[in-house]
Amino acid sequence: MNKPLQTPAVALPARTQTWLIAAVGLVILPHLPRLPWWLALFAVTAGLSRLRMLRRHGGRNPPRGLLLLMTVAASAGIYLRYDTLLGKTAGVALLVVMLVLKLLELHTLRDARLVIFLGYFLVITNFLFTQTPLIAVYMFVATVVITAALSVTTHAGRPAREHLRLATVLLAQAVPIMVVLFVFFPRITGPVWGLPKDAYAGLTGISDHMSPGAISSLAQSDATAFRVRFPGVVPAPALRYWRGPVLWQTDGRTWTPGRFERTPREPQPAVHYSGEPVRQSITLEGHNQRWLFALDLPAEVSIPALHTPDFQLQAYQPVRDRIHYTATSWPDFHTGTLDPHLKKAALQLPAVVSERVQGLARDWRTQAESDRAVVQQALAYFHSEPFVYTLEPPLLGEDPVDEFLFTTRRGFCEHFAAAFVVLMRSAGIPARVVTGYQGGEYNPVGDYWLVRQSDAHAWAEIWLPDAGWERIDPTAAVAPERIEQALDPGAQSTGAAVRFMITESGLLARSLRGLRLTLDALNTYWNEWILAYGPQLQLEFLAALGFGTADWQGMALALLVLTSALLLGIAFWMLMRPPSPADPVLHAWRTYCARLARLGVRRRPGEGPRDFSQRTITVRPEIAAQVDAITGLYIRLRYGNPANPAPGIALLQRLVRRFPRAGG
User: Fold this and answer.
1) Of residues 163, 310, 413, 455, which has the active-site annotation?
2) Annotated catalytic residue 413
3) Average pLDDT of the segment spanning 571-589
4) Structural domain boundaries in the chain
5) Residue 532 gets which letter from DSSP?
6) Active-site residue 332, yes or no?
7) Is 593 a catalytic residue?
8) What is the distance, to the nearest Å, from the Cα of residue 201 to the centroid of all Cα atoms in its chain?
9) Residues 198-252: pLDDT tens digits?
10) What are phi and psi of 279, to 5 degrees?
C-alpha cells in the first residue's frame, strides 16, 4: 500500500518569526490593559524571550515539558481569576495565552500559519470590548501586518515594503465588496448569535439602589452615558435633570425602589402640564438596566416603554446596546393628588432614626407655618452649616444620616439627598430620592450635548398639596456651581472640595478640550451611521438611494447583482493590466532599462547586462558610476544566488529609484 504524501516540515527563517512576533504583538496590545497584570507581563515577556532566542540560539524552542507547565499554570491562573475558562474576558485571556505559547514553539510553516489564523481571530475579539473608529483603524493596520506576515511565510526574501504593499492591496480590493455587503445585506432584529454571559459585565450606569459612596464612585468615570440633541430651545442648566430610578424605601443606609419596581403597571397619576414642552433626541449607551433617561417630567417617548407611577421611563428589556429615541418633557407640571399607598411609602422611615435627627425635624415643624417653610429651613440649614461637597467623603458607620448631619458633614449628592428625604419624612412631608444625571457638556463639533457618568446625580422630591411632586436639590444649597457647571472627575484632591470645570485659560487646555470633543463627535457619527445601521436605518437609507420600499428579496437581488459586477470588474482589471514580475530583482532591472530608454539608450534583444552596461557608458559617460553600481548588483543578485538577498534587493530598488541623477 502506498503511503500518503506528506509535506515536509520546513524550518522557519528568523525573519519570518520576527514578522509573526510583530503581528501578534500588535493584535494583543489593546488587550493588555484589560488582562490581569501577571498575564500581561507574561505575554510581553514571552514575546521578548522569543526575540532573544532568535538572536542568541537561532530560534531554538524551549523544552516541551516547560511549555506544558506554563500552559497548565496560565490556564489555572485564568480560572482562579474569572472562575471560568469561557466567556468574553476569560475566553480572550485564554486565547492570548495560547497564542503567546504558540510563539514559543514556532518551528515549521504549519506553526506559522496557525499563529496567523489565531491572530485573525483575536483581531475580532477586540470589538467585544470597544467599537470606536480609532480601534477599527488600529485593527485594520493590525490585519495588514498579519496578512503581510502571511506573505513573508512564502516569500521571505522580499523587502518588508513589498509584503506590506501586497497586504494593503489585497485588503483594499475587498473594500468595495465589503461596502456592498454592509449596505445591502438584509439586517435582522436582534443579534445573529448569542453572546457569553459576561458580555455586558463592563457596562456602567445608574443602579437601582443607592448607598453612601455609590454615585460618587460612578461620578469619577468619564464614560459617556448618553448624547442629546435639542430640536428647539435648549433648557437652562438648572432644568437639565435627567430622570432615572426613583427610590422609596430605605433601611437607613441603602435606598431601593421598593415594590414600585416590581409593579410598573399601576395606574398613572393624572398630571397637568403647562408652558412649553422640551423635545430631546437621545442616543443612550448600553448600561444593562431598563432605565430610559429624559428631562423632568417625561410625557412621551418614541419607543415602546413603561411609564411607572413615579414617572420613570423603562424599557421592556435591559438596555445592553446603544439605542436612539426621542422624548417630550414638560418642565412645568402639577402631579395632582397623592395616592394613599404612595403617601405611606413616601413617609416610610428606617427602623431606627436618631433622636438628634428627629429633634431637628421637630424643631423645623414647630417653627414653620407650612410644609414649604419646613423645606426652606432645611435648605437654609445645609447652606449655613459647614457642609462640604466632596467626591471623597469619609466612611459612615451604623447611622449614616446622623453621622453625616452632625459629625462628618462631608458628602456627595447621595449623602445630601438621603439626609434631606429622611428629615422631610421625619417632619411628616412625603418625600423620595430620585437618581439620574444632571447637566451635560455642549459639543459644538457635533452640535449635541454630552452627558457622562461623571454627571450622575441624586436629588429629592417632596409632595406638597398645592404643587404635587416638586424637585428639591439640597446639593444646590451647598454647591450651586455643581448645578450650573459640569463636574470634572479628575479635579478632586484629598482633603479639598470638588473643583469644577477644566480651566479654559491656556492654549493647551483649549486644545485638549477641542481634541476630546472632536473625537467624541467622530465617535457619534460612527455610532449613528455604522454601528446603528440596523433594519430601520437600512430601509431609510435604501429609500433615500431610490430603492423605494425595499424588502429582503429586493435587497438580496441588489446584493447579488452588485457583488457580481464588482467581482467581474476586479477580474477584468487583473486580466487586462500588464503582468508584473514576481521576481523583485527582475522588476527593478526592467524599471532601470525603461528609464535608460527614456534617456535614448535602448537595450537590444538578447543583449546581456554587462554588454548593455558597457554600451551605455560609451553613450552616456556622465552616469557611468550609477550604471556600474546597478549592473554589478543586479548580476550578483540574479546569478550569484546569495544566502540573504533581502539587503541587496532593497539596495538595488533604492538605486533604481534614484536613477538617473544626471543627464536626460
Assistant:
1) 413
2) yes
3) 74
4) 14-153, 214-491, 584-658
5) T
6) no
7) no
8) 14
9) 555 555 668 888 887 767 666 677 788 899 999 988 998 889 999 999 999 998 8
10) -100, 140
